[in-house]
Design goal:
With 80 residues, the protein is of the alpha+beta class. It has one domain: PNP-oxidase-like (Split barrel-like). It is built from two helices and three strands. It has helices at residues 15-25, 62-79; strands spanning 33-38, 41-46, 49-54. The chain has a three-stranded antiparallel β-sheet, with helices on one face. α1 (15-25) crosses α2. The chain is globular and about 30 Å long. The N and C termini lie far apart (34 Å).
Length: 80
């Protein structure tokens, strides 16, 4: 497993990015929160519901993580 070390400012998603990622879930709205991130995707949780958003490419650095999250948000905006 590859560890990605983030600075505090890099570990927070902006509200628009978070909402875009949630829109891609295809799940009912809810208080979705990120519960985990690994090189292959993001795990989200809302109460007893869980979901996963896979990245298009494996992420192995903080800058690649940011790019992957931005790409997910752009994809969500394009489909909504």
């Amino acid at each position: 497993m590859t560890a990605i070390h983030l600075q505090p400012s890099e570990s927070r998603l902006r509200p628009a990015s978070r909402q875009g990622a949630i829109d891609l879930l295809g799940e009912a709205e809810g208080p979705w929160k990120i519960s985990g991130i690994d090189p292959d995707g993001v795990d989200l949780i809302a109460g007893d519901r869980i979901a996963r958003l896979p990245f298009k490419e494996r992420v192995t650095s903080a800058s690649a993580l940011r790019a992957a999250l931005v790409a997910l948000a752009k994809e969500a905006r394009a489909t909504s």
